[in-house]
Structure formats: C-alpha cells, structure tokens
Amino acid sequence: MMALITLSALTSHAQSTDTLRISDAIQMGLENNFSLRIARNDVQVTRNNNTFGAAGFLPKVDVSSSASGTNYNIRQELATGQVNETNNYQSTSLYGGVQLSWTLFDGFAMFANRQRLGTLEEINSIAYQLKVEDVVSDIIVNYYTLSVEKQLLDIYKEIMRLSADRLNIAREKAAIGTSYQLAVMQAEVDYRTDSAQVLKQINRVKDLTITLNKLLGRNPTIQFEIERKIPEVKLFDQDSVIEILKNQNKELLISRLNLRLKEIAIKEAQASRYPRLTLSSAYTVSQTNTPDGSTTLSRNIGPSYGITLGIPLFNGFNVNRNIANARIYMENQQFNHQAIENDLTAEAVRLTNSLMLANNLVEIEKKSASLAKQNADISIEKYRVGLISDLELRDAQIRYLNAEFRYQNALIQAKSAEVAIQVLMGNLQMP
Questions:
Q1: DSSP label at 221?
Q2: How far is CA 266 from CA 126, 256, 327, 331, 396, in A?
Q3: CB neighbours (10 Å) of residue 155?
Q4: Burial class (CB in 10 A: 0-12, 13-18, 19+), 268
Q5: What does 54-71 look like in DSSP terms, one character per residue?
Q6: I want to staple 410 with a disulfide (CB 3.0 to 4.6 A). Which of 245, 362, 390, 429 is the partner?
Q7: 354-381 pLDDT, tens per residue?
Q8: In the chain, pLDDT over 90 holds for what percent of residues?
Q9: Geometric angle at alpha carbon 331, from 325 and 332, rounded to 5°
Q10: Nearest-CA neighbor of 116 among 54, 45, 40?
Q11: For the purposes of burial, counting CB atoms within 10 Å of the CB of 422, is it exposed (0-12), middle (13-18) or buried (19 or more)?
C-alpha cells in the first residue's frame, strides 16, 4: 500500500505554471529560434553583397605614398682612364598619388554578376521563408504531440487508478476469504506494470517539453502548461494541392532560381570572348633630392591618364570548354528541378491520402475510446461484486488503453499531415 500512496503523490503533484498558447509559442519561436536567427543573418549577408560595386560597375580608387633614401659610395672608371669617386652620395625620394581604375566594358560580365548577386539574395530570402515554415511546422507538431502525450498520461493514470481499485478489492476479498491470494498477487503485478508505464509516460512528456523549449529558443528547464484541445483538421483536394505547390512551394522556387544561376553562369563564361576596356587615371606628386648630384632637386606634379583595350584571340579553347560545361550544369539543374517537382508531387499524393485515412480513423477511434471507457468503468463495478474475473477486468482495461492510444495517435497523424500539406503548398497557416 505504501508504493501506491507514494506513486500517487508523485503523479498527482502539479507545479504552478503558466499556460503557453500555440500562437504565443509560434511568435516566441519566430523571434528566438537560433536557426532562424542564423538564417536572417545569411539573408543580410547576401543583401549586403548585392551592390553595383560588388558586381564590378564602379571604379576602384587607391591612395598610395612612399618615401625612400640612399647613401652610396660611388666609383666610376671612365674609358679615358679618368676615375671619379664620391663618398656618402645621398638621395631621398618622396611619392604620393591617387590612382583610379575603371572597367568600362568586360563583355557584359558585370551585368551577369549583378544578376547573380540579385538571384542569390532572392534565394536566401526564400530559403529563410522555408526555414520559417520548417520551424513553425515543427513547433505546431511538437506542441500538439505534447498535448496528445499529456492526454495519454492522464489515461495511463486512469488505468493505474483502476488497477489500484482492483488491487484493493482483491485484498478485501482475500481478507474475508472470498478470494485467493493468487488474485491479489496478479492484481499487484498489473498495478506495478501500470505504475511503470505512468513513469515512462511522465518522462516522455518531459522530453517533449525540452524539445519544444529548444525550438522556442529558451531555457529547456522552463515548465509550462499547454492547451489540450487539438483543432479539427482541414481536408485538401489532391489535385489542388499539386497545382498550388508547383507555383508556391519554396523548394521549387529555390530550384528555379538555381536554374537562373546556371543561365547566368553561361553569360559569365561567354563574357571572356569579348574585348575588355579599362580606363586608368592618376594624380601623382614625386620629388627626388640629390644634394651632391648635378641635379639637386627633381619634382613632378600632375595628372596622368590612359585607356587599355584587351582583345582575347586564343587561350587554348578554354572559353569554349567553360561555356560547354556551363550548359551541361544548366541541363543537370533542369533534371534536378524535374526530380524535385516529381518528389514533391508524390509527397502530396501520399500526404493527402494519409490525411484522409487519419481523419477517418479519428472518427472511428473516438467512438471506440468512448465505448472502451464505459466498458472499463462497468467492468470494475462488476469485478467488485464478483460478476467477472481478474482476466476479464484486465482485458477491459487493456482495451480502453489501446482504444485511447489509437485515437490520440490518429489525432496527431491527421494534424501532422495537415501541417505538412500546408508546407508543401507554401501556405502554412499560423494558428
């Protein structure tokens, strides 16, 4: 009896915690989830990179300066036989200038670069949206899974309570001589089995609580209550799901943009066939001092400018090779896009079928669970007055537990399939 009292106290203990609504959980996850914060930074990096300067449109301007000096001992032997010697011949040089280099034409490569940077920014933006869908869907599924597991915990506790009642009845009967001690032993074994199942389920709930806290980007030890009711699922027409996902699915959108990148890569490879025109200009100041020389001071100040035209004639057919490879990569990306679309279409068919099945099972198992509970409640009363055996009572308890498990499992399967379909369509609905 002491084990019964101790376990009952353990499972009935409740902490004072706040109720976390699903909408609040989603908002918290959007703000604090670490993978989303990283993804937002990735978007910012590509946004920073998408500039005219990074694409090569703008000139490059540098400022440079230098100072140097020499101190030589000079000996000159002339053809006439004359020898000139100078010791400690000193000179100093100063230089400063501003240089400008500006590519005016590079075979349209700068335009291709600009397109590539813009496409990369768009890819990362959609990838962030996809990450949002993944995180929010994980939060929703985990939240309702936790709700289901807490509901099952209540069922396990109810089964344990029924087993405790059975054990007490068996002990009372044994005390007055109307039951054998074997029945008491069997009842206690079943009670301990149910008690162990309650403890396992408590640990399962704790694990899911930790996982949800991690998704929300907060301390895993935070305790909270949740809303127990799972909203009814929405059914989807299979053809509509397939049609919508072809236009809105984030993976497909990213795949199309990757195909655009391959097309841009062809333009970048073709740019090597064109001439390259570069403008250069500088404004410099230089001064050289040679106190012991024939010219003691030389100073140059002023601008310089020039224009360079480079025309590629032959580079070992490397341009042709690069263009051919770029076209092959684009073809591979087309195949990859078709494969992704085919996989997502198959997933849409599977999920819509699973949702339909799970929704039908919810209706069936809900009624089965209700009937099984009534049967379990009636069975314990019959057992009390000796109308049914231990095995019949245990069978009623097991049937009740199995019916509830199937019902709760159908609920979460239906909700998971609904959320997955919404993600496929690129239209996840926030609760």
A1: T
A2: 24, 16, 7, 12, 71
A3: 21
A4: buried
A5: HHT-S-EEEEEEEEEEEE
A6: 362
A7: 999 999 999 999 999 999 989 988 988 8
A8: 67
A9: 90
A10: 54
A11: buried
What would the two tokens of residue 287 be? Answer: 């001064």
Q: How far apart are CA 103 and CA 175, in angstroms?
A: 103
C-alpha–C-alpha distance, residues 431 and 24, integer Å: 10
Q: How far is CA 390 from CA 33, 179, 319, 348, 396, in A?
A: 52, 11, 86, 48, 10
369: its two tokens? 């669970």
pTM comes to 0.85
pLDDT at 389 (0 to 100)? 82
DSSP-derived secondary structure letter, 180: -
DSSP assigned state of 311: -
Residue type, 422: Q
The residues near 423 (Cβ < 8 Å, ≥ 6 apart) are 133, 134, 137
Q: Residues 46-102: pLDDT tens digits?
A: 999 999 999 999 999 999 999 888 777 777 778 888 877 877 778 888 888 999 999
The tokens describing 356, both together, are: 């339909």
267-270 LR contacts (CB < 8 Å, sep 24+): 267/108, 267/109, 267/111, 267/112, 267/115, 268/109, 268/112, 268/113, 268/116, 268/326, 269/319, 269/322, 269/323, 269/325, 269/326, 270/107, 270/319, 270/323
pLDDT tens digits, one per residue of 388-419: 888 888 889 899 999 999 999 999 999 999 99
Alpha carbons 72 and 62: distance in angstroms, whole number: 33
- pLDDT for 139: 96
Q: Do 74 and 169 touch, CB atoms closer than 8 A?
A: no
Q: How far apart are the C-alpha atoms of 278 and 308, rounded to whole Å?
A: 5
Q: What is the pLDDT, as a whole number, of residue 170? A: 84
Higher-confidence position of 164 and 3 = 164
Q: Does residue 291 have a pLDDT over 80? A: no
Token pair belonging to 288: 């050289």
Residue 428 gets which letter from DSSP?
A: P
The burial class, CB within 10 Å (0-12 / 13-18 / 19+), for 297 is: exposed
Q: Which of 137, 141, 139, 130 is nearest to 29 (CA)?
A: 139
Core vs surface per residue 108-137: b (16+ CB within 10 A) or e = ebbbbbbbbbbbbbbbbbbbbbbbbbbbbb
**DSSP state, residue 398:** H
DSSP symbol at 230: P
Strand partners, 39: none
